[in-house]
Amino acid sequence: MCADLLKVTDLTIEYAPKNRPSKTAIEKLSFAVPSSGYTLGVVGESGSGKTTLGLGIMDLIEPPGRTVTGSVEFMGRNILSMSPAELRRYRWQEVSMVFQSAMNSLNPVKTVSNHIAEVITEHSDATKSEAKEKSIRLLSDVGINRQRVNDYAHEFSGGMRQRVVIAMALALSPKLLIADEPTSALDVVVQEQILGLIKEKVSEYGLSLLFITHEISILDGLVDNVAVMFAGEIVEMSTIDNVVFEPLHPYTEMLIDSLLTVGSNSGKLSKAMIPTEGLRSPIAAVGCKYSNRCKYAFDRCKNERPLLKEAEFGRWVACHKYNK
Amino acid sequence: MRIRRISRSIKNASLAAKVGSGIVLAIFVLVLVGPFFIPYGPYDTSSVIDSPPTLAHPFGTDYLGHDIMSQIAWGGDSSLLVGIASALGAALLGLLVGVVSGYYDRLQPLLDGGADIILTFPSLPLLILFGSMFPVTDLLITGILVFVLWPPISRSIRAQVMSVKSRPYIESAKVSGMTNREILTRLVIPEVGPIAIAYFVLTVAAAVVIVTVLQFLGVGNPDIVSWGSILYWSQQFAFYRGDWWWILAPGLIITLLALGFALIGFSVEEIMNPRLRT
Amino acid sequence: MNTAEVSGETEPKKIPLLEVSKLNVEFSKQKGFLNRGRNVIRAVRNVSFEIFESEILSLVGESGSGKTTVARCIMALKAPTSGSIKYKGVDLNSIGGKKLLDYRRDVQMIFQDPFESFSPRLTVLETISYPIRRLAGETNRTKIRDIAAKLLSEVGLVPEDVLHKFPHQLSGGERQRVNIAKALASNPKLLVADEPVTMLDASQRLNVLALLMRLKQSRNLTIILITHDLASAQIMSSRIAVMYLGRIVELGPTNVILSEPCHPYTQMILQSTPRLIPGHRRVLRSTIAGEERPDYDDRGCSFRPRCKYATSICSSNDPILELKRNQQQHFAACHNPLH
Questions:
Q1: Which residues of C touch B179 (CB under 8 A)?
Q2: Is residue A248 within 8 Å of A262, Cβ to Cβ?
Q3: pLDDT digits (tens), chain B, 278 positions
Q4: Which residues of A touch C269 (CB under 8 A)?
Q5: Which DSSP string do the residues of B222-262 spell out, in sequence order?
């Protein structure tokens, strides 16, 4: 029986800036990516901790953030206790990441093929010429033709630059690709192309995918499974069909209810127009974090924090409604 | 209400600011109040010549028995006065020009060009030149220093104003009916003000150094006691008499002054910016 | 039979509240005495449309479409290179000073960025006081505070909680509501909402749009909604104008445009917008069309490089926005419209 590809157990990461109260970004978070080919979308709003999760899995948390407890096991080995040399092998070769800002952080004085070639030479034993050959192949694989491999980043459009970043992420054939909002800054048509490219490469290379976003609708056709995050915890996790069309957790229900998609909005606006009681209540400090805003909340919710449990087969929820 | 906000943040100011203020305050006290308490006058000679620092003469004495501490205390006001006045003048003028040229595009080429030309002037030779042509007064030196020191800050302010001008809240203010004058005084100047204040604080030290150098070179009257005049005389006599304290005292005072202002300068932004406060 | 039907008109001609005619805005790329002509960016090209009282018109387009520039011209924040904008028949170019203040009283804007559209140094009360003082003409401090409080309640905030706070102490949704309250301070007739919910969390967007709709109904507002999101346009507006590279390429009633678009660009963005249909997962396409190359050449259609229906006429003649389907008042700028 082989270990899960990625197993996160009780991960807690907090930020403690100087002169300010510390904030827990992720709290006792546990989930697993069981095998290769598994695609998971992580959905959360601002403050949900989703970006921290991505950084934590890559051990990229910098002060004032720090990992308080928990482990991140990649094929059985805990990332968080790796030496710098082992980490350098881990990053890019086993797990690689595509950020939103990456396309704007490309080095203006390096050609696009150099970006990829350097990833290869720094994280593996390939020679410079091997790396250059490989980078040209990778660029063509993501749709950038040979004539442009020696161009500079600023000569490309946003979508093309993101393709370069994806090529970098695929360079060493990792087993897991983490993408954090890679398409938020792109126009909707280019967005579909980039998502399509990611999907294509993920199945072609046999990768697993962890796709972090705040827009659940773009996950359509991209991932098989979805995890919903709220206030640093995973509150629901299942297949995308389950989560979107039959949400269990009240927060997920609220998210889906407020979705704006073309074609399905009759009555949504009128329902939303009924004035509600003032502002959003704050996140509860005791008990279930969502309890202050939850229309189903009862006594147990205010006192006891619900754990992520399998309510039905393949459906995980952290909610006392399903905890009988 | 605003004053209460500012005094609260002064209390919370960083260690650097407190240390810096302490140093500067100490020097000011020495210069302003010292003359009343120090038993010797700056021109009083005595029989205690070439004395290293002792309890009686904390900064030592020179080749004629002058108490150096007294000379520092008495001689400081011209340096400090000119330093502060010229830094203040340069900062204010630079702020004004920077804001106007940054906000009103039409005036930009003219004001920029002027600033550029002045930036190329070598300040010290200019001052020496003027010093040899006209009777050197504190006012003259202040005027020339202001003239020479305002361009750098105006460029910096102008760049900042242009960046602020493009922020959405400026457009929002226009749409709300705020007049240009209100936008400048309530929105733009508070944003760029701290830079001018920081520049002022740092420039005081530079101005004091320039004045001291002039006095050291003999511009003006070296027989009138000032920090530069001490160096004028000590440079000639201290070496072969072995009176190292004679050179150290003015140099150290000026260095400490510059350090003090620098430390304050670093903390000014923290006081002025609400976001960093809460 | 009334006179209108006899003469063949289906309804009496309405007078538009705002009329934009042949608007052109050019930005020069380089400033300098010797560099003229060549380096011009035509951000808005020959844009014309009308907006009638009590309607919501969406200006839909992606970055670079010119929609924000059009908004800024309407708000008199940018002077157009040519063309006119008439509010109640009066040309914006001809007014200044006091008349401009009158205009600002009637036409207000909701800004896109809930953080950058506030000065970090002013409290909410101070920020809202300006339009109340300058546009609504109120000088009494207590009255100003009362008006501010009423406006904040109207947008769903609790005044006591919010008035004394600085922008960074509020959440994005709260700041955007303050933005709306500020825009309403002068009792405007026309609101230009520039991507009002784009920078908000997903769960907040519907609430803020619903708020806008409630306000529109209670105050009889006319709204120009600027957005890149077709779903927001669909839920809010009765008409949509689709913009591409500075031009309006399609204009018409919302449901018609979204169900039977005439212009290939509209079709393209519709197909790429995720719909989340039960039991029907979309198939992502990794290659769709040619790389966008902003065409500053006036010849031919600027969408031609990406259009799969392009023919030879598309390279030589710039299509003009014209009526394609009379019954629905549906206009498109295309030589080979889809319907």
A1: 134
A2: no
A3: 455 555 665 666 677 778 888 888 888 888 888 888 888 888 888 887 888 888 878 888 888 888 888 888 888 888 888 888 999 999 999 999 889 888 887 777 777 777 778 777 777 787 778 777 877 777 888 888 888 888 888 888 888 898 888 889 999 999 998 888 889 988 888 888 888 888 888 888 888 888 888 888 877 777 888 888 888 888 888 888 888 888 888 888 888 888 888 888 777 755 555 444 44
A4: 188-189
A5: TTS--HHHHHHHHHHHHHHHT-HHHHHHHHHHHHHHHHHHH
Q: Cβ–Cβ of A188/C273 closer than 8 Å?
A: yes
User: Which of C104, C166, C179 is the closest to B177 by Cβ?
Assistant: C104
DSSP string, A89-150: HIIIIIEEEEESGGGGSS-TTSBHHHHHHHHHHHHS---HHHHHHHHHHHHHHTT--GGGTT
**Residue B269 CB coordination number (10 Å):** 13
* Shortest distance, CA A310 to any CA of chain C (angstroms): 23
How long is chain B?
278
Residue A308 CB burial class (10 angstroms; 0-12, 13-18, ≥19): buried
Question: Where are any strands of DSSP class E within A231-322?
Answer: 233-239, 309-312, 315-317
CA C294 to chain centre: 21
Measured distance CA(B246)–CA(B240) in Å, rounded: 12
Which residues from chain C sit within 8 angstroms of residue A263, using beta carbons? 234, 258, 275, 277
Residue among A103, A59, A54, A112 at smallest CA distance from A83: A59
The answer to whether the CB atoms of C284 and A195 lie below 8 A apart is yes
C-beta atoms of C273 and A269 within 8 A = no
Contact B164, B156 (CB under 8 A): no
- Which ipTM value was assigned to this complex? 0.86
Can you count the helices (H) and strands (E) in chain A? 10, 12
Q: What is the pLDDT of residues A48-71, one digit of tens each?
A: 999 899 888 888 888 888 888 888
DSSP secondary structure code for residue C14 in this structure: P
How distant is the alpha carbon of residue B136 from its chain centre? 20
- Rounded to whole angstroms, what are the CA distances from B205 to A250, B34, B82, B144? 63, 21, 11, 16
**Whole-prediction pTM:** 0.83
Of C206, C284, C287, the CB nearest to A143: C287
DSSP single-letter state for residue A286:
S
Question: A210 by DSSP, 3-state: which?
Answer: strand
Tokens of B205: 């030290």
Question: C310: helix, coil or strand?
Answer: coil
How many residues are recorded in chain C?
339
The greatest distance separating any two alpha carbons of chain B, rounded to the nearest whole angstrom, comes to: 77
The partner residues of C323 in beta bridges, in order of sequence, read C331
Residues of A in contact with C254 (CB under 8 A): none
Candidates C77, C112, C134; nearest CB to B178:
C134
Q: Assign C187 to helix, strand or coil.
A: coil
Bridging pattern class, strands A65-74 and A39-43: unpaired
Strand partners, C248: C243
> Which residues in A lie closer than 8 A to residue C204 (C-beta atoms)?
258
